[in-house]
């Protein structure tokens, strides 16, 4: 299983409340299957009344390239937030060790507005771990799950 799908599974196992996986849209044209990318990976409903649209990304480097989040995903997360005050667009960003997925990893929840502000003002093409620490909420890996305290 690729690291991105592994992270999505781990994220889903870690979130409390109702979590719905948003599948990519697949269609067939002239006998070939094509996939249209979805707006995000998960829709998470919490007892608090908050609802989160979450895009999960996993990277084995010490910096996450901005171009890994597609324009339509950024727009979907922003548009979702504009629907209601209790709706939130998040990027769940995992930094893992490429030598082995079993080695320590770090995950951050970053609000889409904070992500876009950083992206447009930092003068970089990526976000290093040290800056993810500042603009995001770190979710420690405990046992076999992330402690996702940023989703309430």
Poorly predicted ranges (pLDDT <50, ≥5 residues)? none
Radius of gyration, CA atoms, in whole angstroms? 15 Å
Number of strands: 12
Which structural class do the helices and strands define? alpha+beta
Largest sheet: 6 strands, mixed
Instruction: Give the strand order of the largest sheet, numbering strands 1, 2, ... along the chain.
Output: 1-4-5-7-8-10
Order of helices and strands: HEEEEEEHEEHEHEEE
Number of helices: 4
How much is the average pLDDT?
87
Helix content: 25-40%
What amount of the residues lies in strands? 35-45%
Distance between the termini: 29 Å
Overall shape: globular
Description:
This protein is of the alpha+beta class. Helix content is 28%, strand content 36%. The chain has a six-stranded mixed β-sheet with strand order 1-4-5-7-8-10. The chain has a two-stranded antiparallel sheet with strand order 2-3. Strands 6-9 form a two-stranded antiparallel sheet. A hairpin with a 2-residue loop joins strand 2 and strand 3. The chain is globular and about 40 Å long. The model has no long low-confidence stretch (mean pLDDT 87).
Features:
152 residues, alpha+beta, two-stranded antiparallel ribbon
Write the layout of secondary structure elements.
Blueprint: H1 3-14, E1 18-21, E2 25-29, E3 32-36, E4 42-45, E5 51-59, E6 63-65, H2 71-83, E7 87-95, E8 106-111, H3 112-121, E9 126-128, H4 129-135, E10 137-138, E11 141-142, E12 145-146
Parallel strand pairs: 5-7
Antiparallel strand pairs: 1-4, 2-3, 4-5, 6-9, 7-8, 8-10, 11-12
